[in-house]
Amino acid sequence: QYQPKPEHKFTFGLWTVGNPGADPFGSAVREAISAPYIVEKLGELGAWGVNFHDNDLIPAEATPEQAKQIKKDFQAALDATGLVVPMATTNLFKDPIFRDGAFTSADARVRAYAIQKTMKAMDLGAEFGAKTYVFWGGREGTEVDAGSRTLDAMGWFREALNFLAEYNISQGYGYKFALEPKPNEPRGDIFLPTVGAALGFIATLDHPEMVGVNPEFAHDTMAGLSFPHALAQAIDAKKLFHVDLNDQKMGRFDQDLRFGSENYKSAFYTVKLLEDSGYQGPRHFDAHALRTEDYDGVWEFAKGCMRTYLILKDKVEQYNADPEIQAALAEYYVKDEALSGLTSKFSPENAQQLKDTSFDLEGIRSKGRGLEKIDQLTAEVLLGVR
Ligand code: XYL
Questions:
Q1: Is 56 annotated in the active site?
Q2: Is residue 140 within 6 Å of ligand 1 at its C-beta?
Q3: How far apart are CA 321 and CA 313, in angstroms?
């Protein structure tokens, strides 16, 4: 039980289990491991796929010959394990050239280079069959605002995405783009900080149908926002093109903790939203093992992400089938066919009838909503006593 299988569509980035544990105050604590080795290990653990930034696979300094060999070895590992590459992305944050933004840099040369680098990274992803292309604008932001850059940045960001959407079409890659919002870190303030901000921006693009979001649990949680709420909005907008699962303490630096390690209830509602909505995409873990760990700990971390997801999936099924919970929910969702008929669609007649309706205001006001009971029952499912 709780054994991950490819059908569960669990994916990890090369940069997640391959994270050597450096932080701003300390150097790496783990040796670098190769992409083929990561693929082999993830295959053993039951993952479905692996994702990469261009430079996770091909280091920036690799010669064309080396790049060729790296790709060959990586493909061989994919063939041997059956792992797929559903998503690819670009590293637009490590190189100092991006220190003040990539697509939104105030320097036209940097903006052009960022688009060039992304086209090449899209070529690389397509070589391995990736169908989702993630845009995390880690350096797209400011510490200090200068001139009108905060406004100009929106236009530059739009120009880049429009350009790359046309490139996607002209190459026949069939990518779906997924914008990944984050409020801050590494920039003081990152542009398009929330799922809602990204959705608003997508509507202004030339190909809005091609572009959705990649919400990340830690990113909303850092800002003190509710990840399940962000996720629900993305699902409702039919824009959930990818999802980054991990965990996080509120108000801290970006911790990228093991999925389900910190906020059990939000993790539960996250899984419930994904499962109940019929989301078909990858369950991607964008997290890394604690810096305290060696590679044994890294593989425990990877297993833990998937196992906790499956445990929570089981809890969701239990919750959905629990007669007492369902009865409490049936009371919570007060139904009134006649009123819903009136409000479901405007007509002058419905409007008039609604105006003429009298409500039992005192009765509605004075009745509690029963949420203490529902929430306690939820807690008891999670705590394993139901
Ligand atoms: C870091 C981000 C990245 C993206 C991909 O906070 O989550 O890892 O997922 O660039």
A1: yes
A2: no
A3: 12
ipTM: 0.90
| Catalytic residue check, 219 | no
Residue 97 burial (CB < 10 Å; 0-12/13-18/19+)? middle
Q: If pLDDT is split at 50, 70 and 90, which confidence band does 137 have?
A: very high
Is the CB of 89 inside a 6 Å radius of any atom of ligand 1? yes
Residue bearing the CA closest to ligand 1, atom 4: 136
Please check whether residue 272 is in contact with residue 266, taking contact to mean a CB–CB distance below 8 angstroms.
no
- 79: CA distance to ligand 1 center in Å? 26
The type of residue at 66 is: Q
134 CB near ligand 1 (under 6 Å) = yes
pLDDT at 92: 98
Instruction: Tell me the Ramachandran region of residue 77: left when phi exceeds 0, alpha when psi lies from -120 to 50, beta otherwise.
Output: alpha
Question: What is the rounded distance in angstroms from the CA atom of residue 121 to the CA atom of residue 181?
Answer: 20
Question: In testing the pocket of ligand 1, which one of 219, 244, 245 has its CB within 8 Å of the most ligand atoms?
Answer: 244
Q: For a substitution probing ligand 1, which of 23, 134, 136 has the most ligand atoms within 8 Å of its CB?
A: 136
- Check: pTM over 0.90? Answer yes or no: yes
Other beta carbons within 10 angstroms of residue 171's beta carbon come to: 13
Q: What does the pLDDT look like over 188-212, one tens digit per residue?
A: 999 999 999 999 999 999 999 999 9
How far apart are alpha carbons 142 and 151 in whole angstroms? 12
The pLDDT score that the predictor gives to residue 320 is: 98
Give tens-digit pLDDT for 321-359: 999 999 999 999 999 999 999 999 999 999 999 999 999
Q: Which atom of ligand 1 is nearest to the CA of 254?
A: 6
Residue 279's CB is within 10 A of a number of other CB atoms, namely 18
